[in-house]
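User: Sequence in, structure out. Go.
Assistant: Echoing your sequence, followed by the structure tokens.
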Amino acid sequence: IKFTFVEFIVPHSGMAVKQEWAVDTISISYYTGIIVRNDCKDTLRKEKHPKKVSTMMTLTEFREARDLLSGILSNTSLIHSPYYSKRTGGEVYIKPENMQVTGAYKVRGACYKVSTLTDEEKAKGLVTASAGNHAQGVAFAAQRAGIEATIVMPTTTPLVKVNNTKDYGAHVVLEGSCFDESAAVALKLSEEKGLTYVHPFND
């Protein structure tokens, strides 16, 4: 079995870069959602936020997470793309995670994270930092579990994303001009109030 890795470096140009790897060890990239090899050294882009990978999740763990999320999230089956398949010379399938309840795949990790919390952690509440998709995912997961959530968002966040996050019952704090500044505020709140910090990708 082989996966085809396709990344569009400059989307508006219509150009793509294709590379194939035999599957041995794989992981899901937090930044693009594309399947990539952990040991790939011929990287076509730099990770925005490098992360350390200590151990790989097993297939059993993936299946357990899938079963846990079944009935909570929408089933987004792969859709074959004739256009991109033709453009890249390989079979390209698109996973329409925009059809999730919050409009993005980030809700998957948020719901799974909430399911692992202890009763004490749930009672204290959650905090995170995000400019949109992760914020809505955590807010949705917290609301569903009856947990209080505080979301720190940059002051530049589009109003529609701020309002969507509030609609899921989260307390939104607009502070920081960028993600890193907002994350620093969220981490401070986590330490001061004992809130569980839900990392947007490195967990």
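User: And one key feature?
Assistant: The mean pLDDT is 79.
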